[in-house]
Each structure stands twice: as C-alpha cells, then as structure tokens.
Automatic annotation (TrEMBL):
Protein name (record): Transposase
UniProt source species: Acinetobacter baumannii
Tree of life domain: Bacteria
SUPFAM superfamilies documented for this protein: Homeodomain-like (SSF46689)
InterPro entries named among the record's database cross-references: Homeodomain-like_sf
C-alpha cells in the first residue's frame, strides 16, 4: 500500500528528525512508520 505524503507532513517529519537527531535513524523511521 503506497502512502502519499503531503508537503506539510514531510516538513513535520523533517522537523521531528532534527529535533530528535540523537536517536538512531532506524528508530525514527519506525516511529514514522517508514521502512526498516
């Protein structure tokens, strides 16, 4: 099932990653429900 992410969601995701950059990328990806 392909997900279409809006620009707003992408911006929020980027801000979340930057705010939590101390976490492993895999952990962040799991929280966002993306891959890994």
């Amino acid at each position: 099932m392909a997900k279409r992410f809006s620009t707003e969601f992408k911006q929020q995701a980027i801000e979340y990653v930057l705010a939590n950059s101390h976490e492993p990328l895999a952990a962040i990806a799991r929280k966002l429900g993306v891959g890994y």
